[in-house]
């Protein structure tokens, strides 16, 4: 079954288009009900859903590119088995005509959306006591250390892959913050150094950009960029074009 064209170019503000994709997703046996569209990525659409064998609503990430599935067979089972308080839980990876990932629902959305798409949300975030924001960053770092201790690289640490478990409300304590999206994650025990440069340029370590061998230190560099963003609400390398950004990171 081919994915409908609307999945690739749908307007999130066009209710009829969202309904078409929701109806498509509901053809999957595991899906009981699609509720709302949560977000859109380059290769996916994420919906809040009710699914079989789960008492609570979950996030379902519908893939528009089958190559974006974060693991098949044994690798997929490994990713599903990862459990840490600051990792977004992966409950299931469904392969077949309609391929999707069943994830823990983080209703607070991504840190990237909060800081860069919502001026009011950004102001609210920066009014959160610094110690709470630092603790949030430490939680993400602990999740990353957990992966590294299992010889797994995340390879795309960024604010767009950091999620708040519940919505940020001014004056209330910050909810748990979780690292998600294991689409680029790979076990490093099977490799003699990574050489394929993947991830998001603004967060890439110099060795990734230069296409040399890299390992866990590349994730640590990205984590440093993320911590700057968590504290200041801004990126440390604020360059408008790719060439100047690469120069700023590598020199």
Automatic annotation (TrEMBL):
Single Gene Ontology BP annotation: regulation of autophagy
Methyltransferase recorded as keyword: no
Name assigned to this protein: Protein kinase domain-containing protein
Record domain Protein kinase: where: 32-251
GO molecular function: ATP binding; protein serine/threonine kinase activity
One GO term describing the cellular component: autophagosome
Family matches, as SMART domains: S_TKc
Family: Belongs to the protein kinase superfamily.
Organism: Polarella glacialis
Domain of life: Eukaryota
Binding residue positions for ATP: 61
Keyword field: ATP-binding, Kinase, Nucleotide-binding, Serine/threonine-protein kinase, Transferase
Keyword Endoplasmic reticulum applies: no
């Amino acid at each position: 079954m081919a994915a409908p064209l609307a999945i690739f170019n749908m307007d999130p503000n066009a209710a009829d288009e969202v309904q078409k994709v929701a109806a498509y997703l509901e053809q999957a046996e595991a899906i009981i009900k699609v509720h709302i569209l949560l977000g859109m990525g380059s290769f996916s659409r994420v919906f809040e859903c009710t699914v079989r064998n789960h008492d609570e609503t979950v996030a379902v990430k519908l893939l528009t590119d089958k190559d974006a599935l974060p693991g098949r067979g044994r690798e997929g089972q490994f990713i599903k088995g990862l459990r840490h308080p600051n990792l977004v839980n992966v409950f299931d990876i469904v392969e077949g005509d309609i391929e999707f990932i069943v994830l823990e629902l983080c209703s607070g959305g991504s840190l990237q959306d909060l800081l860069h798409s919502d001026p009011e949300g950004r102001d609210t975030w920066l009014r959160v006591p610094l110690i709470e924001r630092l603790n949030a960053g430490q939680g993400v770092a602990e999740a990353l250390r957990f992966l590294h201790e299992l010889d797994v690289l995340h390879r795309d640490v960024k604010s767009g892959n950091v999620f708040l478990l519940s919505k940020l409300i001014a004056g209330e304590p910050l909810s748990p913050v979780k690292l998600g999206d294991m689409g680029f994650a790979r076990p490093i025990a099977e490799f003699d150094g990574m050489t394929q440069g993947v991830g998001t340029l603004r967060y890439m370590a110099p060795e990734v950009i230069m296409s040399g061998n890299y390992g866990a230190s590349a994730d640590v560099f990205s984590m440093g960029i993320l911590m700057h963003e968590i504290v200041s609400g801004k990126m440390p390398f604020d360059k408008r074009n790719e060439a100047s950004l690469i120069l700023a990171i590598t020199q």
